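INTERNAL AUDIT FORM
Audit reference: QA-55
Scope: verify that the stored structure record matches its stored sequence.
Auditor: D.O.
Record contents follow.
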Amino acid sequence: MKHLLISLTLLILLAYYSHAQSKTELPSNWKLINGCTVSVYVPPDIEFVEDNSSDTCLREYRSKNISIEIYVTPFNIGADQYSNWLEYCVMKTKINTREAEIVTQYISVTSEKNNGLDYMAMMLAPRFRKGSGNLIITTWSKTSNERDKAIKILKSVQFDNK
């Protein structure tokens, strides 16, 4: 009986700790932005840049040190989105009970697209909407510390009920 009580206590503590660990603490001054049927918390200096939506939804936001692109795709997504990258790290997670992957990479070749923001973090959420539509949120950051902030942005995603 004693072992059962200890095991049950440890199981409850483990469940509580893992749930608490999945929540990301956000600074109180972060604001909520909405686009492509998702909401995400961002630092106050991030501003809307443009909406390139046509058949799909594609929105861009930017600050001095972080760029964010929210894209709802009509095609399937997965490892083929990043498997040819030289060095990357994949973290499987659940966001609002949905399966997702957060992929990070340091991009050593500066391109016009990332404009000196060489640290990338991307969230892939397959089967994002009923029917068709997958979600890719890509961030580019100036430093690894800013990329850590971008990962907090990705973990703050809330899916709209559509």
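Auditor finding: record pair retrieved intact. Confidence is low (pLDDT under 50) at residues 3-11, 13-22.
Action required: none
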